[in-house]
Amino acid sequence: TGHWQIALDDSTEFQARVLIPAVGQLSVPARPRIPGLDDFTGALFHSAKWNGDFDLTDKRVGVIGTGASAIQFVPEVARRAALVSVFQRHAPYVFPKYDRPFPAWERKLFRKLPWLPRAHRAIQWFSHEARGFVLLRARWLVKSYEWRYRFILWRRIRDRALREQLWPDHPLGCKRILFSNNYLQSISRDNVSIVTAPIERVTPTGIRTGDGVEHAFDAIILGTGFRATEFLAGIDVRGRKGVHLADRWRDGAHAYLGVAVPDFPNLFLLYGPNTNLGHNSIIFMIERQIDYVMGAIRRLVEHPRELIEIDPDVERRYNEAIQASLTDSIWVSGCDNWYKDDKGRIVNN
């Protein structure tokens, strides 16, 4: 019929000419495969499914993970909990977040000179794009950023042993670069500790590490990120002649411009495969994708009987070029990251 049939899990059904899955790359929580996780008798929850009913005040809290999720909630938890133990496999690079309030005089100037905020934004954009050039084309420049981070640690962490724990074991950019103004300070608090011994198992009362130490907790928070490489996880998408999108992506997700997939007419992804960034604004990227989708929708409005579908050869050549361009990037420099699927193919960035 030239329409998508959309069935919800409560048996409600809809029809639509255009389908735009906009569920993002970071929407399905990743639960770690740790023995005994279900045996814990305290409060256990993932940061993406926060248990707002559990009061963390004066509690002993274990945090598994040190990625982008953990650096956001650890400082807040540390202010309320009696004890916070952060279980760290790989220390992240955490740079200052250059966030500041714009004073009244500056906002007034922005209103009077409309080109000024645009210039301010352009400077921000190009400075971040320069970092992208380093990650993708000039890996030899990465060392200068690493030395800068060593200086940041030296300034903010006075304890030498803790500084060593917080020094990353991978090249900058291989894993996601993080930005925070309070994570490193929170790690220095008396009630916070970094645990680098590997987790052996979760017990009914806490976490046992490989060095034989039992860590007792009232709550364990999983800051273990998302199943980022499983695009549209949990949604069964069937295209032309009943082909399953999951089957099409069995060897790794791919799409033209991260938006269009052959045999799935009038389907347009947002934040799809290979559209994520390690250096600049994903909002900017999504805005560009929306421009593409709106152009397609305008065409469909003008031609009610048409379908829009990407040519398979165009999509194949595009993705071959993307994968070839990533072979020298910092993201394939030997560390584990969530940009790659289980076959080692970069499907996110």
Q: Overall mean pLDDT score?
A: 94
Number of helices: 9
Number of strands: 12
Give the CA-based shape: globular
- End-to-end CA span: 35 Å
**Could you state the order of secondary-structure elements as H and E?**
EEEEHEEHHHHEHEEEEEHHH
How much of the sequence is in beta strands? 5-15%
**Percent range of helical residues:** 25-40%
| Rg value | 23 Å
By helix and strand content, what is the structural category?
Answer: alpha/beta
User: pLDDT under 50 segments (min length 5)?
Assistant: none
For the biggest sheet, the summary is: 5 strands, parallel
Q: Strands of the biggest beta sheet: in what spatial order?
A: 3-12-4-5-8
Structure in a nutshell:
With 349 residues, this protein is α/β, with parallel strands linked by helices. Helices cover 31% and strands 13% of the residues.
Task: Looking at this protein, list some descriptive labels.
single chain; 349 residues; alpha/beta; five-stranded parallel β-sheet; three-stranded antiparallel β-sheet
